[in-house]
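Researcher: Quick one. three chains, 1173 residues in total.
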Amino acid sequence: MATERIQMESELRDRLRAPATGNEAVEAALSRRYDAGFVTDIESDSLPPGLDEGTVRAISARKHEPEWMTEWRLKAYRHWLTMTPPHWAKLRIGPIDFQAISYYSAPKGPKYKSLDEVPRELIETYDKLGVPLHERAKLAGVAVDAVFDSVSVGTTFQKELAAKGIVFCSMSEAVKSHPELVKKYLGTVVPQGDNYFAALNSAVFSDGSFVFIPKGVRCPMELSTYFRINAGHTGQFERTLIIAEEGASVSYLEGCTAPMRDENQLHAAVVELVALDDASIKYSTVQNWYPGDENGVGGIYNFVTKRGECRGPRSRIVWTQVETGSAITWKYPSCVLRGDDSAGEFHSVALTHHCQQADTGTKMIHIGRNTKSKIVSKGISAGRGQNTYRGLVKIEKGAEGARNHTQCDSLLIGKRCGAHTFPYIEVKNPGAIVEHEATTSKISEDQMFYCRSRGIGEEDAVSMIVDGFCKQVFRELPMEFAVEAKKLLEVSLEGAVG
Amino acid sequence: MLKIDNLHVRVAGREILKGLSLEAKAGEVHAIMGPNGAGKSTLGNVLAGREGYEVTAGTVEFEGQNLLELAPEERAAAGVFLAFQYPVEIPGVNNTYFLRAALNAQRRQRGEAELDSMQFLKKVREKLAVLHLKDELLHRAVNEGFSGGEKKRNEIFQLALLEPKLAILDETDSGLDIDAMKLVADGVNAMRDPARSFLVITHYQRLLDYIVPDVVHVLAEGRIVESGDRTLAHELEAHGYGWVAGRHAPAGAA
Amino acid sequence: MGAFLDSMLAGRDGLGGVRAEAAAALLRDGLPGPREEAWKYTSLRALEQRRYAPAPGEATDVPALAAFALPGVDGARLVFVNGVFQPALSDLQAAPGVEILPYREHPGQLDKDLEGHHGTGSADAFLRLNTALVEDGASIRVVAGADAGAPIHLVILGAPAAADLAWQLRLQVELGAGARLSLVEHHLGNDEHAHLGNLVANYVLGAGARLELLQVQDAGERATLIRRGSFHVGEDAQLAATTLEAGAQMTRHDFRVHLAGRGARLESRGVFVLHGRQHADTHMDVRHEARDTSSDVLWRGVADQRSRGVFHGAITIAEGADGADAALSNKNLLLSPQAEIDTQPALEIYADEVKAAHGATVGQLDEQALFYLRTRGIPLDAARRILVSAFCSAVFADLQPAVLRERLDELLATRLPQAGE
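Model:
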């Protein structure tokens, strides 16, 4: 496949713009920079577009997978064939041609045995994205797995972690090095046929991270995966599996970027979390896939299934997400609270600007006794963005003493955007208490005037107010991520006020 | 310092100020009194640059420059401060952070060096002590969950910190009990300076017992109908606004 | 075709115009299935298998007037028994400017009203069924500026018959500019029948008009009741609705309000109180379509024993409806391990100069309040009843006159968990 040329960012930015608001001065700032929009010039080995059993076998073969894995994929593929794409209640989306996508793309050449073998172009790519992989520049206290298109190119701190019995590696590696764990847990939280995109992922998943924290171990550092889509006309289908055994705890971070292209690229990931007795998993995402341009041309379709199961008593799963990228986001990081006294949390900031659409939220399924869940969702809509919170809180019959509190706030910036809230509350236990509240508001003229009369400029006032609006969620992020999230929000909002 | 000449202002199509003129020199405290609906708050808002206030005639000069041309934040940087009658709540935005952003934005605009957090905090502590405000106020979000009195004191605290050249107090006494009003007045008096002017907008005379004005103006029907020294405020207190209207009849029709 | 539609439509080949169209569409699409979002929590599978005799069917036992009188509701009266207008029990005397036309006596008016609303509603199966087969109901019109005075009492009564009947009723209510009307929609019946009632009501409120609507649903315990009210609220017009859902085995109530004119207002208060195996599904759908419109919706729900309460409360603020102010609150008490509450408040906002908020809770009685009452010597059962009753009757707090409010509280009391249950 031909190498990709670096496209000048300005080329896309300079295309005709249809400002969503009328204020010239502010619109001038609309030259929103998508800093991650460059393309890495590296030769890749890609499968031709198209999907059939041969494709599934070819992916499995390239990854040198054992027979059982190939069969697992094929079973998922056959199931996928029987399914129909989901009905998009609130999303504007054209049909996706699954035969036009390349399902595997990897930098050419043999697999890198260590980070030292990773080509300069790739190391530079991650440097530019602020994720240095080299030994001397490694992020202190954060172990990184870097996934480039369909493969993991390297994982830092592996030795240090292994000393504690922690496995942190790419999924492809885990299939070979820890087949018993993969077999035991893969697909147990998100079954192969769970939904259309989960089935597709199960058939063609390329790479992703595998984390195993053994009994009683608290992971001494943040684990992080950095996902990068580079090649054109490809989809990314990563699969992540995190297992925390009894009493174990881990905090995991995920970041995502992609070049600016005027095609829509598909990202259909599956993430499964398993928390056994007293275990705790914190999973944080800062999602900054390319959102498309001001007119909605290009951008990533981000269709993700993320689910965690609190299998053991007193276990805890916390999802935190900051979603600023993607043309369309469709994800509901969920918690199945099976263990008694287990707890699930979901903290989310989703921002849609220009023509972005987000349909996101969570499902909290209370099965065990005294299970608790907390949902904080902050949606920001600007330009022509459409932002939907969709959530389910389900209290099963046996969930005596279950508690849920949900707060959904929407902030509207401009006249042409939309903010929607669709919670579903189903309660079958009379000992449960479920509370949901939602508000919708705009940045008031009074707030703006107050800030400005104290000398704070318009743009700064908006980011200050939006930051205040999101504060509750940012607090949940690890420090470095919180700073990045805040910056991202600022950049994403440029030109939003009129 | 401030020179308002024949100012006409429309709000939502209705003329509220109808030829207001006023001049305040550096170091002076001017009280603007008047009945409800006279245009008192309109004056404060139009000076601070609020949207929706249409100036149809007249000029406002502040230290020789045309104030009406400036954006609200530029007016702030130039040294105009409005203490709001109804201070706005900004959820999630920390009070200290807000104030530092404001102060440094103004300093940047004026070409002055920004304060680092140590310098800033030192300044904040000094001012807090003057106003008898608790540290705790700083850690809360801007005006969020503040009582009426706390909001007003927070305004005066901001005034103390931002050290403007012209401070406009828009009914800062409304809703305050006598103790809170004294605290506010103490804060303002501590700020009096030969280089600083005040416009104290109020409905009642009692605030002026504590902030003693150099000049008292009576605003009625969108115009200054009478100006005098502080005794005018007592006259008004004794006779009511009807008394002024009577003295200037048929001023309204003229 | 299921047994239900077969029993309803067999031999009805002679329908014409809009009726034929509705019947054809109904046969083509059938009843909604569980995959349809609007019927997610209410299954029609059992209904699909049931057969009904077409109304009218001879009622075997019609109660006396006094049985359904409500204090304070003493204006004109329209009585329908098993879907058939009863001139002898009715009283059409109304204030000047008020016109009441029972459709059975004015079939031409029914045709006109059916035509008038054709195509304006969504493709709902029960609306189609109603359009195809309805022969009874009434139109109530209040001319511009008129005040209809004392509340008009609309009694819809189920009475035992030789077989279970399915009846269709249509109601067309129009208020001219500045007109005022107070209307009581009262459903009742006994437990010796399992009829299906299907009422479609269209309301049009002209500029500045005010409609006070009280809905008392106390249908027989085995009855199935489907209701759909559509309200078009014009400029500065006001709709104040109070709803009590207490009866019927299965009930589905769609309440759609179009705040179509600038300054239009809705105030809705409602409560459902369920026990036994009752299933009540209420769908509020409030659409702010013009500037400066406001809605205030407050609903409560109680589910005891093996009942299931469903509340869907959607607020949509359309593009351009700046200045809209919408608030919706839904609080529920779940009193039994076999009962279920499903609540789904929803906001859909396409304008930015708006205030919109909703809240929903599902929980139990306040333990501290219960304890407080018990320390004052009130036994647990009684304390629970007091608190549940207070929880429900909050929705009637503003209802006038007081005698009517007291009557509704009494009715509520009979539906609350009984001591020793």
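The radius of gyration of chain B is 18 Å.
Researcher: Thanks, that's what I needed.
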